[in-house]
Design brief:
- By secondary structure, the chain is mainly alpha-helical.
- The longest helix has 25 residues.
């Protein structure tokens, strides 16, 4: 069943540009987004499965604090990597 999604003209125009850039339609672009984007419940379920796997196979217990620290370190490395790329260019 088809339906209509109402967005403002600025959003519609941006979706049209993105769809054209990806050589697809706005409909396909939105369908791909909906199919590939995890819901909060799916993200939590994936995180829970990952935590169980890490505990069972590596003896690592993941906590909210350790997750936040790992994320901080990853972001720091990404920033450093981008800065190094800019310096090399």
């Amino acid at each position: 069943m088809d339906t209509t999604i109402k967005v403002d003209s600025k959003t519609r125009d941006r979706l049209a540009v993105l769809a054209e850039a990806h050589r697809t339609t706005m409909r396909a672009l939105i369908e791909e987004f909906a199919e590939s984007t995890l819901t909060p419940a799916e993200l939590k379920e994936r995180a829970d499965r990952t935590a169980v796997y890490l505990a069972e196979h590596f003896g690592v217990t993941v906590t909210d604090d350790s997750s936040a620290e790992v994320l901080r370190r990853v972001r720091s490395q990404v920033v450093a990597h981008h800065a190094a790329e800019q310096g090399a260019a």
